[in-house]
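[Meeting: bench + compute handoff]

Bench side (C.D.) handed over the final construct sequence. Compute side (W.E.) agreed to return the predicted structure before the next meeting so the bench team could plan truncations. Sequence as handed over:
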Amino acid sequence: MPSPPLLLSIVGPTATGKTSLALRLAEHLDSEIVNADALQVYRGLDIGTAKPSREERSRVPHHLVDILEPTERFSAGDFARLARTAISEIHDRGRAALVVGGSGFYLKALFEGLSPLPRAQPEVRAQLKRRAEEEGPEILHAELAELDPETAARLPRGDTQRIVRALEVAVASGRPLSAWIADNPAPSRPLSALHVGLTLPRAILYDRISVRVDRMVERGWLEEVRGLLAMGIPPEAPAFQAIGYRQMVRCIRGELPLDEAIDETVRATRRFAKRQMTWFRKESQVNWFDPRSLAEDMSDILRLLEQSG
């Protein structure tokens, strides 16, 4: 019997070169790319998300890119559902699928499934996010430890996004997140894939992030955001809450000088990259590579593919 079509994921922190490697591999394998970046799904957010260019997308078919307006919300569950459909359709065409991105929770939802949870409560979440900004995530983590000690024990004190979500569930539903997960285990339909991770020494990665942010600003990131605001996208739109975009919005509104917006974006992106690395390092199935060793020669990854087949 012929082997089933390949499913490969390329993961790792921001600025490690996932897009470049994915394009080269996709062309070599005659495959299609499924985006797993939480922001590249939004139309108009091109520069600040390092979205593949139109020329790059013409070389290799891409899925789940430019599918939403910046005002629309998108969850890990939404991503998993759409990504599984895209992968199935790619495999039906007899082609390999490459899932590419650094959104760890989205990837977990796709490959492992998520426990059913109560629907999001935007008002509760917005209030908690404001408190996190004003009081710091440590205060919210302490409150979570009282309401849901099991969840608090597994979440880092600085993981604002997941702390806010866990508190939102506890406050809005009256039950801790850990109880919801215990009563509603994740679906047992994991997807089997070969996982490739890209990693760099922290100092080099941090330098890359600084250079990347500067280049994005030079390419017109501020003008991109100004154009979206002029089109009527409100500053509180979901897409504008992302790192960099919220700083550019504040700059345009006169709340933050450009140099401070850039510095704040670099610092926030570095913290995000550190959280990404912490997340992915816990995934034992990831095969790690230094992207510098792959710049000219992909033979190590191709050998890995042969061995896994």
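W.E. noted at the follow-up: The longest helix spans residues 258-281. C.D. will use this when planning the next construct.
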